User: Which sequence fits this backbone?
């Protein structure tokens, strides 16, 4: 099989200057003999509060939806529309993985993000045999992988994972806003906005606030 199966090779291939979303990476993996190609992405690396959430998605061959794109490029309403289409489409396999605030503080946000991605693909009803990972840091496990910088804007299965992860985490933060009122979690989702920082100064930290911010 000629496709890159190591993180180093994946990182080199991720530098291709192509930001048009397609299923080219999935097709390349299938052409190399892999059958179950999962896209992985996470959301929540930057906030001051809340977990980091990852999603793993295996799309059926030929899946197409006109509004599928990087979750950051879509409105909330459009993300929900695409998420609902993904979840209702036969053959789309998906799973969520999370790392807690305690884990983030213990192992750092990068390692917690990678842990959430591992948990996500391990929960799929079909274990993937190839991983397409957003970013430039691979999981370096036993499953062959390829990292893609800006993969959520280039690769359909990663874009799908970004949407499912984003919608899941947003809903989770909406629920946490009810547990910890006065912080505005339902609005900023835990990110360090001026409103959020003022709330911390007024009310102090909650159990869902991160205490450390080491990234490596």
Assistant:
């Amino acid at each position: 099989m000629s496709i890159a199966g190591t993180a180093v090779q994946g990182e080199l291939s991720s530098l291709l200057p192509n930001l048009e979303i397609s299923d080219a990476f999935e097709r390349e993996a299938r052409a190399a003999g892999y059958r179950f190609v999962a896209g992985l992405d996470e959301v929540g690396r930057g906030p001051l509060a809340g977990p980091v959430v990852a999603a793993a998605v295996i799309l059926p061959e030929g899946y197409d939806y006109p509004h599928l794109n990087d979750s950051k490029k879509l409105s909330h309403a459009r993300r929900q529309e695409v998420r609902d289409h993904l979840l209702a489409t036969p053959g789309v396999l998906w799973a969520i993985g999370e790392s807690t605030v305690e884990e983030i503080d213990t192992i750092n946000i990068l390692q917690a993000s990678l842990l959430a991605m591992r948990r996500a693909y391990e929960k799929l009803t079909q274990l993937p045999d190839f991983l397409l990972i957003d970013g430039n840091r691979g999981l370096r496990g036993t499953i062959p992988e390829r990292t893609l910088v800006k993969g959520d804007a280039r690769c359909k299965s990663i874009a799908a994972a970004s949407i499912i992860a984003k919608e899941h985490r947003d809903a989770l933060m909406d629920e946490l806003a009810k547990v910890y009122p006065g912080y505005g979690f339902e609005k900023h989702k835990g990110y360090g906005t001026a409103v959020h920082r003022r709330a911390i100064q007024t009310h102090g930290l909650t159990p869902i606030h991160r205490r450390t911010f080491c990234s490596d």
